[in-house]
Design brief:
Order of helices and strands of chain B: HHEHEHHHEHEHE
Strand content of chain B: 5-15%
Structural class of chain B: alpha/beta
Strand order of the largest sheet of chain B: 4-3-2-1-5
Largest sheet of chain A: 4 strands, mixed
Number of strands of chain A: 4
Helix content of chain B: 40-55%
Oligomer: heterodimer
Largest interface: A-B, 15 and 11 residues
Shape of chain B: globular
Structural class of chain A: alpha+beta
Shape of chain A: globular
Order of helices and strands of chain A: EHEHEE
Radius of gyration of chain B: 18 Å
Chain lengths: 84, 190
């Protein structure tokens, strides 16, 4: 996806995994991606330092599209589009 | 999969992916036989090592990788039910049973256990930092279809009976592990 304004993305679902440690955010993202429709955006909130690196790798592996990450206040907002 | 016992969660088998992977690659290529699975030997019964094993298993399962965990020797204790199960045993077997930890909540750290204080402190810190506990990781792995296999030879040596292990655990020998390892891209000994 070309440059997108991440802040303007309206996610179909937000997973608040703040406070959860590895592998919590990944497992929650995995669970939640099945609940949004194909093509919809899932947003994951996490303050675990490894998550922003893990989510893109997970998305690539299982065939979803990683859009990008936004730094919130003390946590990260990670955007993924369900692709299958 | 036809011999699934009641109460057994649906286990994600390596074979399913194997077919896909093999089909998508040129026939006759030996590397093509190997598919995208993860197999682990859990030899240790140390809390820290077993935690690592289950974190990896959960991560792999979330990434769509079928996982087989083969529990042998001290690792068998991870699968024990926490309450005693009445079974017939010889004296030595009974002593083994008493001395070894009964289930995931009884495991100790491999270092800095300090008579149990270190393990308690570690569990406390992990809880504060919201790291999943071992029982929760095991439950989550099973929900994700991770296959847990108990080594029957070790069970025999240590006098552990099938009914003393968690429901849904499978039983196998070295060939079961090697078969899983053959299909795996990654194999770990923990």
């Amino acid at each position: 996806m070309a440059q997108v304004d991440l802040a303007s993305i309206k996610a179909a679902k937000i997973v608040d995994a703040r406070g959860s440690a590895c592998p919590g955010p990944l497992l929650e993202a995995k669970k939640a991606i099945g609940t949004v429709s194909v093509g919809a955006v899932l947003e994951i909130w996490s303050n675990d330092a490894g998550t922003k690196r893990d989510i893109p790798l997970w998305a690539k592996k299982v065939g979803h599209e990683y859009v990008g990450v936004l730094s919130g206040e003390g946590y990260e907002r990670i955007f993924v589009i369900r692709r299958k | 999969m036809s011999d699934r016992r009641p109460g057994e969660k649906s286990i994600v088998r390596c074979e399913v992916v194997a077919d896909e992977v093999v089909a998508s690659q040129p026939a006759g290529d030996e590397a093509a036989e190997r598919s995208d699975c993860l197999s682990m030997i859990v030899f240790s019964g140390d809390l820290d090592k077993v935690l690592a094993a289950f974190i990896i298993a959960n991560g792999a399962a979330a990434m769509g990788t079928p996982v087989t965990m083969f529990f042998t020797f001290w690792g068998l204790n991870v699968l024990r039910k926490s309450e005693p199960v009445p079974v017939k045993k010889g004296l030595l077997e009974r002593m083994f049973g008493w001395m070894m930890p009964r289930g995931p909540e009884k495991l100790k750290l491999s270092q800095m256990n300090m008579g149990g204080i270190g393990t308690l402190m570690m569990k406390r810190v992990m809880q504060q930092k919201n790291v999943y506990s071992l029982p929760k990781l095991i439950e989550s792995a099973r929900e994700a279809g991770v296959s847990l296999v108990a080594c029957t030879m070790s069970m025999d040596v240590m006098g552990i009976r099938p009914e003393e292990l968690m429901d849904g655990v499978e039983f196998g020998g070295v060939a079961t592990f090697l078969d899983a390892a053959d299909r795996s891209r990654t194999t770990l000994f923990i």
